[in-house]
Amino acid sequence: MKTAERFIAPDDGRLDDAMRAAWDRDGFLALEGFKSPAELAELRARVDEIVETFDPDSVRTVFSTQQQSHAADIYFRESGDKVRCFFEAGAFDDAGELTVPKQRALNKIGHAMHDLDPVFDRFCRDRRLAGMAGDLGLAEPALIQSMVIFKQPRIGGEVGMHQDATFLHTDPVSVTGFWFALEDADAGNGCLVALPGAHRGPLAQRFHYCGDDLRMDRLAEQHWDENALVALEAPAGTLVVLHGLLPHGSAPNLSARSRQAFALHVYDRRTRWSADNWLRRSEDMPVRGFS
Ligand SMILES: O=C(O)CCC(=O)C(=O)O
Fold it and tell me: Is the CB of 250 under 6 A from ligand 1?
């Protein structure tokens, strides 16, 4: 598999012509050195604190993109405006007991740390990101979702190929992913993979409420050529920006190294947020921009 091109992150976050051309052509942009070691260390220390205070017996929700079984789970459904921890499928034995310490058992934390936690708030509400969002056409950015993705050693699960607009839909599509490597991500520990240029194709699926049920509907045939995948290798501190229609995912992490990442998803308020999206927020927590 080829490795995708990376740019050196601009100091002020503003995209030059070559970066804009790569974004238009590929539907992604990898910017190395966007976050400093100190910024990464601060966020990772906060992640460690959240995990430290999390009681694994309080909930046993497993998050897996392979089966939507978690969808029935109220803990997941109500996490759009909360800070909640989700387990890896491979973290339990047949008797339902954790086989690894909780620090090695979580798949992710989601989905509103950017609004509820001061350290995440600072990491996300970065004036360089605000400038970049403007360059990407997000004229009225709304920070809708944040996720820590652990990709644990040995048991870090696959993230199946998907488009973010499947889960965070607006009309027209505007969701944009800002994915940060908190640790080195490479082909050996399950880095992101993507199909360059395939963001020009249609939205293939939608995950949405239908009454009280959450369901996945097919909207268009998926002609995603897995032979054309590229590896988005990303040294710690790299920001990978992902177009909402770009098919992307990541392989399981079978290595002994973890591959922690943080993702922030932003949409443009000038578009119409689809009311049947899975992610819901209470009225007293309206979605906010970069300031
Ligand atoms: O970190 C990963 O492996 C997947 C992340 C992803 O798909 C996303 O942020 O949209």
Answer: yes
